[in-house]
Amino acid sequence: MLAIVPAPRTERPIRIGYARTSTARQELAGQLEARHRVECHKVFKEQISTRIKVRPELEKALALAHQFKEAARDTASSLSTR
Predict the structure, then answer these.
(1) pLDDT at position 6, please?
(2) Among residues 75, 77, 79, which one has the least CA distance to residue 62?
(3) Contact, 47 vs 31, CB < 8 A?
(4) Three-class DSSP labels, the chain
(5) Is 57 exposed, middle or buried (0-12, 13-18, 19+ CB in 10 A)?
(6) CA pair distance 74, 64, nearest whole angstrom
(7) pTM for the model
(8) What residues have CB less than 8 Å from 8, skipping those under 6 apart?
(9) pLDDT, mean of each 10-residue run, the chain (82 residues)
């Protein structure tokens, strides 16, 4: 009897990045470099206070992650924020 073995995954997981600073004096460079090291496909960035609850770029990142998940259900995806 032959067993059916699923093929190993060969595609890379989809990684979406989000970088944020809360003041103009803070630098995004370190966060952006970290997103680059983990090979994010797209990185959203914004400079917005921690007190602001609506973060447009974070919302865009989440929406894109949702779109990828709907379009490619079998492909791993993640949102990198740290």
Answers:
(1) 60
(2) 79
(3) no
(4) CCCCCCCCCCCCCEEEEEEEECCCCCCCHHHHHHHHHCCCCEEEEEECCCCCCCCHHHHHHHHHHHHHHHHCCCCCEEEECC
(5) middle
(6) 16
(7) 0.77
(8) none
(9) 59 88 90 93 93 94 90 83 76
Q: How far apart are CA 45 and CA 19, in angstroms?
A: 5
Q: Is the separation of the CB atoms in 4 and 67 below 8 Å?
A: no
Distance CA 20, CA 54 (A): 13
- Please report, as a single letter, which amino acid is at residue 37: R
